[in-house]
Write a structure and sequence with these properties.
six-stranded parallel β-sheet, alpha/beta, Rossmann fold, elongated, 9 strands
Length: about 325
Amino acid sequence: MKILFISGLNEKESKPNDFMHDMVLHGLRNVYGDSVIDYPGVWYMYRDEVKKRSYDMNNLWGKGFTLYNLLSNYQQIDRTDTEKKIKTNYFDFIVFGSIHKPRFFFNEAINSKSKIIFVDGNDHPFIDKQITGKGVYFKRELISESINNVYPINFAIPKEKIVNIVNPKPLNVLAPLIPGKNSSYIYKNEQDYYQSYQNSIFALTYKKVGWDSLRHYEILSNGCIPLFLNIEKCPKNILTNLPKKLLFDIYNQYSWILNQFFPTNIYKMKFLSIDKFLLYFVNLFKKKYDSTTLINSYPELIEIKKKMIDYTKKNLTTEKIVSNMILDTIRYYE
């Protein structure tokens, strides 16, 4: 199987990376190996090329955490005669990794006999209907349910970033990083960032611009339990790989622990309410749980952590999303 991954890489941008684009490339390279050609070369995904260029990974979105420095052998990929190969139907699949960036060889690709895949990883729900009929369209943040050949796609985690062992003695009830609270974004390296989740029982997460966020997967891959605000409001075709029903049940069962924390310390303005303040003050003189007491009182939390890790390994890897993407595309073209 020969696959061309067309990148919209623009080196003039201050932050050239695009999470959905990069997850798909990582998954494709891990599943299909050297049969995947990325053009133009997505150099910041390859540790040897990053080292060669002495590039500071802090310049990427997310400081280069989680998705980067994982691929290798950048220079060994044959990117020559790409246009000619497209025109002569050399590739079985042509994947446009980010449709909102420059689409190199677009006309040549859609006029070839290759199976065409469009990846739309933007936060907004807009669908480019001008191209939906020219290939199979994978949309993150998919609101619509009945557009022909438009499929949902979600973020994922590299399998090598998923822990194998749950920390049985976490230090924190709630992870110190609070989404949207800039003062809590204190981690300068990936190891310390991951450790904060590994050392915590729960972590707060929620919809920001879009429902999907790499943060959800980083929490899960480090053996931490997400407390996902308003998960029951998530549309059917968004976060399709996450166990939304289980996350909803977990929130309903354990969200009371949030009443231990002063509301303004853990909620952004849109989540603040009089009820949350009242609950805090009502519980002010009730028993407070530290992490050890909570685990001893609710030993099933360790089992939930293990269950979450197992689910993440089976359903939330980059390899899983690209395997599903290729299968959906094959079915469409049959």
